[in-house]
């Protein structure tokens, strides 16, 4: 049955409506169950001794004193765990040339970044484990370090992993058209150097894992704050030599992920290894300093880029040279080359132009490893692209909206392939821009800006168009050999009381996955969403799936849910037709009742059908299929990714005396295809925007030249708080993907993708009359004052 | 090392309206005492140094950071956590507004956020949005971007001031 999405009055019309989230009620009452809320009998706690050096040989470990702490039961070194845990190498075959050394759960004879786990102390309480850890003495011999990105490949720079030959992890050059000759002859060429600050996710709930090993059953159970339970199941099974079927990963409530919790972390594998050795439940909850030094970092990029335009503002060529430093190891199993690769794939994304060159150079250094964090690579690519476009507009004396309109792909050209060889099925740049301009009342805002300027107040408007990669196919990881599922499944069943249970492979970290699935299943079957119970996050129970990352939950998990729900509807109606001696095609399910399709007359409530099927099956015809359960899996196949698009705008004020930026308002119009729940989408956008604003204005991990992390607390690493954040106007255009019946694409990362560029352009719009420009994030008061020439040294 | 001070201390207090007697380690923080000893896991530990507000609870009428106060200081105190505030229905309207406006995503910040918001609402009146933002500036939320939270708090302030009848959240 195809759903008439265009008709809001259709029966069971839950897709497209704001319905409450089933899990919100318990979370507001403090009844959530995060990993640290779980206590198991005989549970132990592990604390890690971590390297205080960025690079050092481990000469010896003396744990005698630590063992005397009351409650400390055992102490493990890296060598102890290596006996039962194999190392991993985070490379993917399709990222040609990517290299990384084997990594163990704890350092063996050499530590490569400040925070790398070296010794594990296991005790009956966390405080005893921490007391013990403080008494472990490790004898280190410092080694030469690599901290600077741009000199990492210089001949005089020490090589971090000598067996690899050099500090180059990965390099990719993509070239399309004749870039060099275009730049020689173009009407105008503008170039700039951009920097995005190394930052991290700061999940409110720190990384958390509790692992139990039952030797009698040879079964491992990991309660884990993760985005990808099945991926973790594979990783634990493979490296701890347990059959995959004997590892169960349970993911209950998760206190924020944003990409941080989709990786395999050495200390979490160590916790599992210890649980297996000790045959007792072992809990590891990172403290905040551990979060800063060991959660993946991201966005540490420096980019030299230029754009060539003609006199009419038409983009002729873009040339991008991106560098990123990924720390000491490529992160398992997604690898740390994806972010740079995304920059190559995404620069110039909204624009119809012919000549494109982009290169990314990915180097090792003695810092915390970087990897995929919300909107992977997008904020960098959008900053570079939109920064250049604005600079070109300024050079031509053209309005920033106008130059974009002259270059964005026309809304009717799709499908189209970009010069980066990305394939776009259907985007809506112009419609989105029109909507944005109307929402923000662009002309009135320009008038307000001029009026303020006359008063000596410096306000700026910044625009940033963007594309966003969602619904990934196996082209993202699977083809590279990683056991990371791009497909996802959903099992939907009807219980005797007529209620529906949906088990899904995608997970919930607060996005509203369970609400979204309950709506889809409710519409697909024909019941109220309240009568759908959604179960996620348990590898022993749910169909196999990829989990929640790369904005795939709604588009892929949602389509699997729709297909399984519609299949269940057919199964129910087949039974109903036999019971009612009616033609199946003349029956429908609405609000939990079997009805006549034409008249809507009620024929039988689902609980009556359930009663007969489950308790009086003897009264049904022999041979009638009576499985009220259906499973469907879905994978995208026509396009490697479903791209979405959007455009953001920032209005802000720069205090040229103090360098402080005040955000006045923010707008975003985006196109994520079919919207399943408008409120949830809006709030994903808003939350994403604020995460992007953090990167633009505050967030930056600082290291000194010795590789010491300098701001490892929330007092020193600034995140956006309520006081500094603006109200945000969100609008939508809907271009459903034709690949699925549901038509949904991802929405979770669009806000983060475009916000930093919008802010940068707004600041530069405010500063332009003063001859100043900033391109290095975050845009701190100091950097703004330096750009203004107010401070120099 | 001679032990000059006792390393455990006896406290008597009220938690969510119920009497509690406990012997606590002198160095134990309130948040750990509540979570580990009393099983009240609604308030969370996040930054563990007073910056994020995830551990916010109510002690003797004011909101307090459970990670900055010691359990040993609780002798004679009247403590309310999200569990008690929920059971007593005393912030039901605020909780409902949070749900209606989707002012929570992962929910990790939410118990602390609710206690902090209630502290402002209890002062009465309808605060300006900037005042709401200011008051909540010690409570970190990575998910929502804050706007929905500000909306929910504003709505409840209006409702309590009698300016709107029902739960219509966004005007
Ligand atoms: S945990 Fe107490 S303020 Fe952050
Ligand atoms: S809802 Fe996740 S941190 Fe606030």
What does this structure look like?
The complex is a heterodimer of chains A (793) and B (171). Chain A has 793 residues and is of the alpha+beta class. Chain A has three domains: 24-32 and 487-634, Aldehyde Oxidoreductase, domain 4; 35-143 and 202-294, Alpha-Beta Complex (Aldehyde Oxidoreductase, domain 3), CATH 3.90.1170.50; 304-469 and 638-787, 2-Layer Sandwich (Aldehyde Oxidoreductase, domain 4), CATH 3.30.365.10. Chain A contains 19 helices and 30 strands. In chain A, strand 21 (488-494) and strand 22 form a beta hairpin. Chain B has helices spanning 30-37, 82-87, 92-100, 110-121, 129-135, 147-160, and strands at residues 8-15, 18-25, 56-59, 62-65, 78-80. Chain B folds into two domains: 3-85, Beta-grasp domain (Ubiquitin-like (UB roll), Roll), CATH 3.10.20.30; 91-160, DNA polymerase, domain 1, CATH 1.10.150. Chain B has 171 residues and is an alpha+beta fold. Chain B has a five-stranded mixed β-sheet with strand order 2-1-5-3-4, with helices on both faces. At the A-B interface, helix 1 and helix 17 of A face helix 2, helix 3, helix 4, helix 5 and helix 6 of B.
């Amino acid at each position: 049955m195809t759903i008439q999405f265009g008709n809001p009055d259709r029966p069971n019309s839950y897709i497209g409506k704001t319905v409450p989230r089933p899990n919100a009620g318990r979370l507001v009452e403090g009844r959530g169950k995060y990993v640290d809320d779980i206590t198991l009998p005989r549970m132990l706690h592990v604390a890690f001794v971590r390297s205080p050096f960025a690079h050092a040989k481990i000469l010896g470990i003396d744990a005698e004193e630590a063992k005397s702490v009351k409650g400390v039961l055992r102490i493990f070194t890296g060598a102890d765990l290596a006996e039962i845990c194999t190392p991993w190498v985070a490379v993917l075959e399709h990222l040609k040339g990517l290299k990384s050394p084997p990594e163990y759960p704890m350092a063996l004879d050499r530590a490569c970044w400040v925070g790398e786990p070296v010794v594990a102390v296991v005790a009956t309480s966390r405080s005893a484990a921490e007391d013990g850890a403080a008494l472990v003495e490790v004898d280190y011999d410092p080694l030469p370090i690599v901290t600077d990105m741009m000199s990492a490949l210089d001949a005089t720079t020490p090589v971090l992993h000598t067996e690899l030959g050099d500090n180059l992890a990965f390099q990719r050059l993509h070239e399309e058209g004749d870039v060099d000759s275009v730049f020689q002859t173009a009407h105008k060429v503008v170039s700039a150097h951009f920097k995005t600050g190394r930052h991290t996710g700061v999940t409110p709930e720190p990384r958390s894992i509790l692992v139990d090993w039952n030797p009698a059953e040879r079964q491992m159970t990991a309660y884990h704050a993760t985005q990808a339970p099945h991926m973790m199941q594979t990783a634990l099974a493979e490296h701890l030599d347990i059959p995959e079927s004997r590892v169960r990963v349970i993911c209950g409530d998760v206190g924020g992920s944003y990409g941080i919790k989709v990786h395999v972390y050495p200390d979490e594998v160590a916790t599992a290894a210890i649980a297996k050795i000790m045959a007792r439940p072992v809990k590891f909850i990172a403290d905040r300093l551990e979060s800063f030094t060991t959660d993946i970092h991201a966005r540490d990029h420096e980019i030299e880029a230029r754009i060539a335009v003609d006199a009419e503002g038409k983009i002729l060529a873009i040339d991008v040279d991106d560098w990123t430093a990924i720390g000491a190891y490529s992160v398992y199993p997604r690898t740390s080359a994806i972010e740079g690769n995304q920059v190559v794939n995404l620069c110039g994304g909204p624009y119809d132009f012919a000549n494109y060159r982009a290169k990314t150079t990915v180097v090792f250094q003695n810092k915390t490893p970087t990897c995929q964090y919300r909107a992977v690579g997008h904020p960098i690519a959008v900053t570079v692209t939109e920064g250049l476009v604005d600079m070109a507009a300024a050079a031509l004396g053209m309005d920033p909206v106008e130059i974009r309109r002259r270059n964005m792909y026309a809304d009717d050209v799709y499908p189209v392939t970009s010069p980066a060889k990305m394939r776009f099925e259907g985007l809506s740049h112009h419609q989105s821009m029109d909507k944005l301009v109307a929402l923000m009342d662009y002309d009135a805002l320009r008038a307000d800006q001029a009026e303020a300027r006359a008063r000596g107040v410096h306000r700026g408007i910044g625009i940033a168009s963007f594309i966003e990669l969602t619904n990934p196919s196996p082209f993202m990881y699977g083809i590279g050999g990683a056991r990371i599922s791009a497909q996802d499944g959903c099992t939907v069943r009807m219980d005797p009381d007529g209620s529906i249970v949906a088990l899904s492979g995608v997970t919930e970290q607060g996005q509203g996955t369970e609400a979204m699935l309950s709506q889809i299943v409710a519409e697909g079957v024909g019941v109220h969403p309240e009568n759908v119970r959604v179960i996620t996050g348990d590898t022993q129970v749910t169909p196999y799936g990829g989990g929640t990352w790369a904005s795939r939950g709604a588009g892929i998990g949602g389509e699997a849910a729709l297909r399984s729900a519609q299949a269940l509807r057919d199964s129910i109606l087949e039974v109903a037709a036999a019971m009612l001696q009616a033609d199946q095609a003349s029956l429908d399910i609405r609000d939990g009742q079997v009805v006549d399709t034409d008249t809507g007359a009620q024929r039988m409530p689902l609980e009556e059908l359930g009663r007969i099927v489950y308790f009086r099956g003897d009264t049904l015809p022999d041979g009638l299929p009576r499985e009220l359960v259906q499973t469907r899996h879905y994978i995208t196949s026509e396009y490697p990714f479903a791209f979405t698009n959007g455009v953001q705008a920032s209005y802000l004020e720069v205090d040229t005396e103090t360098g402080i930026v005040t955000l006045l308002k923010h707008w975003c119009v985006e196109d994520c295809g079919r919207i399943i729940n408008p409120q949830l989408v809006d709030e994903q956008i808003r939350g994403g925007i604020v995460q992007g604003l953090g990167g633009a204005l505050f967030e930056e991990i600082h290291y000194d030249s010795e590789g010491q992390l300098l701001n490892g607390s929330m007092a020193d690493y600034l995140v956006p708080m309520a006081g500094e954040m603006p109200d945000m106007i969100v609008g939508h255009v809907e271009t459903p993907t034709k690949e699925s019946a549901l038509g949904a694409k991802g929405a979770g990362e669009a806000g983060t993708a475009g916000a930093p560029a919008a802010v940068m352009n707004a600041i530069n719009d405010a500063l332009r009359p003063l001859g100043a420009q900033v391109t290095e994030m975050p845009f701190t008061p100091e950097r703004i004052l330096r750009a203004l020439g107010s401070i120099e040294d | 090392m001679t032990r000059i001070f006792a390393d455990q201390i006896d406290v008597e207090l009220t938690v969510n309206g119920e009497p509690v007697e406990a012997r606590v380690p002198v160095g134990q923080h309130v948040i750990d005492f509540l979570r580990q000893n009393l099983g009240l896991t609604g308030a969370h530990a996040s930054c563990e140094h007073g910056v994020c507000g995830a551990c916010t609870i109510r002690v003797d009428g004011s909101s307090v950071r459970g990670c900055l106060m010691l359990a040993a200081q609780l002798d004679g105190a009247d403590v309310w956590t999200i569990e008690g505030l929920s059971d007593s229905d005393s912030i039901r309207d605020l909780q409902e507004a949070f749900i209606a406006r989707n002012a929570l995503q992962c929910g990790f910040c939410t118990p602390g956020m609710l206690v902090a918001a209630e502290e402002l609402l209890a002062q009465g009146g309808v605060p300006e949005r900037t005042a709401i933002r200011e008051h909540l500036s010690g409570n970190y939320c990575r998910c929502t971007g804050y706007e929905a939270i500000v909306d929910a708090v504003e709505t409840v302030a209006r409702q309590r001031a009698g300016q709107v009848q029902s739960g219509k959240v966004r005007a």
